[in-house]
Amino acid sequence: MQARSIILNAKQTVDALRTLVVTASPKKSLAKAATSAAVQVLQAREYHEVTGDIIVPSMVQGIDHLRDPRLNKGLAFTLEERQILGIHGLQPARFKSQEEQLELCRISISRYQEDLNKYLYLVDLQDRNERLFFRLISEDVEKMMPIVYTPTVGLACQKFGLIYRRPRGLFVTINDRGHVFDVLRNWPESDVRAIVVTDGERILGLGDLGACGMGIPVGKLALYTALAGIPPHQCLPIVIDVGTNNKDLLEDPLYIGLRHPRVQGKEYDEFIDEFMRAVVKRYGQNTLIQFEDFGNHNAFRFLDKYRNTYCTFNDDIQGTASVAVAGLLASKRITNKRISENTFLFLGAGEAAVGIADLVVKAMQAEGTGLQEARDKIWMFDIDGLLAKGRPEGRLGGHKAYYAKEHGVMKNFADVVKEVKPSVLIGASAAGGAFTPEILHAMGDFNERPIIFALSNPTSKAECTAQAAYDNTEGRCIFASGSPFAPVQYGGKTYVTGQGNNAYIFPGVALGVIVTGTHHIPEDMFLIAAQVVADHVSEADLQKGSLYPPLSAIKECSMDIAVGVTNYAYQKGLASTYPEPEDKKTYIESHLYNYNYESAMPVTWSHKPSAGHDDGEEFDFCICISFHQYLCCQRY
């Protein structure tokens, strides 16, 4: 039968409706309204045509494949795709594979000298080609993660008002009280499974950056996808803007947030409560809410308040604790000592330090140590001095009280080191250089293999450098840091120290929680994650001076953590997705994001004749549907 083509597009619809305005005067108002609506559709649907991970062909036109970063493949579109989609001629004649594009990206980013420019290049890449961006990060973790996240993300947050390009995430302000749910409804994705939220009060070790802290949730969620394969459309970065107490920002003409001091107290708490309720109402009870870089006085409060009623965790407390304990578990193979055989001294008693201490206690309990005995092995020193019960400043509320000692007041950290004689020294104070040569020498005097963790971020805030730790302990220290350091040269040998990066932990925990639909996240999951990371440390890693596996192994760690979390969730009755999968790893893999390009061609199939159709004729339909461009149907 003669082929017949029917082409309908939105522009013709608008023209037809305009004709209706003239010819159908009794229905003139209706026609005008319909025309206006169609024009708005044409004008509005110019960017991000895709929501979720299922493309609806009738809602996407050819040009969208170049404009939308989720669809764009650059020069990787085949000739057939370019012709069918109607984009042939809109690109150069060259065809490139995704592998060729990756190599070009590597060359391009290597030409930038400043890390902030490299960061901006990656932001631009994500804005135009999402799959290429995530594949680049996932395949070059060691080179790209320090740019996408710490330490470069700290500088990006400080310059956020200057480098801000376009929206990526939601800004929920205190002015939106009573309407937080309405703000969440404005996010175009309905299948959000994971939210990273900050109020910007304590960004890394940089302090209060207010709304400029958006770089942190954006960076964290980029790692959710790149390191754990969580689909990007399921991730939502959010900044809660309640003002800032940073005077420099309040006077900065480039600052993008609310220009008033932080709202605090009851009003602030009620606003956070409203936010939590709105998330559950919009996306469901199982939505993972990761708190990030809240002030010390709020972090533990919110964790204790919400952990048993929402699916939530605080990465600064629990993620940092898990990666630190992973390093301690790995160090057992060097020192041949159990965790409980150590004496711990912390510089800093904020959310990170206390979080680590709490999980260290749990690790000791797993070895059979009693709760109070475990806490007695941990000493802490903060801005007011040693955590001693009788100190005049007090300020021993919350979890700090567990580690306060019956001891005299001490204000000099070096004196505390000499008295306590710790075998493990952990810095989480954001006080750059606080581990002085004197203190490091003392650690070497007390211990054959002193364990020294300088965990503060960014690099400028680290308590000591890797080189200083080795130089002042005769090369005998077991060292880890929160930010990366260059290889250390000592005694004719090169040591490549490990970075205790939370990225070893939170992507895998999040993946396991999401695929199981876990309602609440117990502390045991972070101990499981710590053990998995420690198990991935090889003898070769330990020999070269690292307590952590290479960053290139994070994806493997994330998968194994997710499997461990999944097993635990089903064993403890925390999972809500049923039936329980027999092969947990295969089940998890079925939910992962595909970093590789997929065909942009419409799906076609043949129709077989129905029973009773005796002339043997078959009908082949090639359907290319697009609301904006065409609906083409051929019958042969």
What CATH architecture label of the domain at 317-502 and 537-553 applies?
Answer: 3-Layer(aba) Sandwich
Overall pLDDT confidence: 89
Using only C-alpha atoms, the radius of gyration works out to 28 Å
Tell me, what is the CATH class of the domain at 317-502 and 537-553? Alpha Beta
Query: Based on helices, strands and strand pairing, what is the structural class?
Result: alpha/beta
Biggest sheet overview:
7 strands, mixed
Instruction: Could you tell me the CATH topology label of the domain at 317-502 and 537-553.
Output: Rossmann fold
The CATH superfamily of the domain at 317-502 and 537-553 is NAD(P)-binding Rossmann-like Domain
Number of helices: 26
Shape, principal axes of CA atoms: globular
* Intertermini distance: 6 Å
Q: Would you identify the regions where 5 or more consecutive residues have pLDDT less than 50?
A: 1-28, 37-47, 616-636
Please list the strands of the largest sheet in the order they lie side by side.
8-7-6-9-10-11-14
Helix content: 40-55%
Beta-strand portion reads 5-15%
Per DSSP E runs of 2 or more residues, the count of β-strands stands at 17
Cofactor: Mn(2+); Mg(2+)
Protein name: Malic enzyme
Keywords: Metal-binding, Oxidoreductase
Organism: Anopheles dirus
